[in-house]
Automatic annotation (TrEMBL):
One of its GO terms (biological process) is regulation of DNA-templated transcription. PANTHER family: HTH-TYPE TRANSCRIPTIONAL REGULATOR YBHD, NITROGEN ASSIMILATION TRANSCRIPTIONAL ACTIVATOR-RELATED. InterPro entries: HTH-type_LysR_regulators, LysR_subst-bd. SUPFAM superfamilies: Periplasmic binding protein-like II. This is Transcriptional regulator, LysR family. Gene3D superfamilies: 3.40.190.290. One of its GO terms (cellular component) is cytosol. It comes from the Bacteria. Residues 43-252 form the LysR substrate-binding domain.
Length: 275
């Protein structure tokens, strides 16, 4: 059965040829990864792990698990890629990533992947720390009409979510936003001007709020938080470090849930007692 067809520009792959080429690339990538793992183990470095993660999963999910993994395997070589799920899944397909902490649903064919949910990615509206003091009461999006938005590009999920929030609030999307996919650029811009406002994953926003670089605006968003999880290739074989990392992610999630429950019990007001 032919894999290529003649054309004016030379031989080009047909549909079957494209299929064979795709799987050949996967095999070549797996062999390259095998050679790298063997070389690193022989050199005493202990193998490698390549993880892709969406931004909101990094501070409270990926980083603690990586720290625990590194503590147990100090010779392990680790690579972390931060990007959108849509851009990382092809890297997972090609074998450049061992796993992705993100969303399989954005793929053209989600059935190609194993998906294990981990948690939600709540969002926060933020301004620079130099912004005038904010009221403690709830603020509506309509109250922020005088601000200029720093928002994610139109192909990113957070842009679509902000569009939905604006629509639910009966507002038009801003005509003159500053568009960037960079968290660093977003924070730098917010710090530079009290006129600017943005939407960030709460885990990321909290990191900068604690360091007095941003302020959270008490806006209650109506859209439900998006769920993220561990995405792996069906038919792929996970390395021992990847399997251990997934176990640590699950343990970290359980620990955080227990910690939040304990904190809620601690801060709950005791019932009034009568003599």
């Amino acid at each position: 059965m032919p894999l290529f067809e003649r054309s004016k520009s030379g031989m080009i792959p047909n549909q079957l040829g494209h299929c064979v080429i795709r799987y050949a690339r996967l095999v070549a990538t797996d062999l390259t990864a095998l050679c790298q793992d063997v070389a690193e183990i022989r050199s005493g470095r202990g193998g490698r792990l390549a993880v892709g993660a969406i931004m909101g999963a990094i501070p409270e999910c990926v980083v603690p698990a990586l720290n625990r993994l590194q503590a147990g395997q100090p010779n392990l070589s680790i690579e972390v890629v931060e990007d959108t799920s849509a851009r990382m899944l092809p890297q997972l397909d090609d074998g450049r990533l061992d796993l992705v902490i993100g969303r399989a649903a954005v793929a053209a064919d989600p059935s190609k992947y194993h998906y294990r949910p981990l948690g939600d990615e709540p969002l926060s509206v933020v301004v620079g720390y130099g912004h005038p003091s904010l009221p403690k009461r709830e603020v509506k999006l309509r109250d922020l009409a005088g601000h200029r938005w720093v928002m994610y590009p139109s192909h990113m999920p957070l842009h679509a979510l902000l569009e939905r929030e604006m629509d639910l609030a009966g507002l038009e999307m801003p005509d003159n936003p500053i568009s960037t996919a960079s968290t660093f650029v977003t924070v730098a811009l917010l710090q530079s001007s009290p006129e600017l406002i943005s939407l960030l994953p709460s885990a990321i926003a909290g990191l900068f709020v604690r360091h007095k670089m941003l302020r959270a605006v008490p806006v209650r968003l109506k859209s439900p938080s998006q769920t993220f999880g561990v995405v792996t290739r069906k038919g792929g074989v996970l390395s021992p470090p990847a399997e251990q990392f997934i176990e640590l992610l699950g343990a970290e999630l359980v620990q955080q849930v227990q910690g939040r429950a304990a904190q809620n019990r601690k801060t709950a007001k005791p019932a009034d007692k009568t003599d």
